[in-house]
Request: fold
Amino acid sequence: MQEIIQYAFFWRTEENVGAINLALADGSGGQVIVDSPAEASLLLDVLRNERPVFYDRANALIMTGLEPVGEGE
Reply:
């Protein structure tokens, strides 16, 4: 599992599919295919607003770090 340090998003309007390209802390990268605007919105919200965020390549998993229960904005 590696921390995500940068990301880029694209959406193919004709095919109605997109992807989020990830740059990871170890210098490697990953890609997450997104099938809907709702899925893209959810993942981009996590990438924009949470810290730290990690990517587990083996399980194709994006995960936030632990946060206290009831933490407000």
The first helix runs from residue 37 to 49. Residues 2-64 form one domain. Residues 39 and 45 are 10 Å apart (CA to CA). The chain has one helix and five strands.
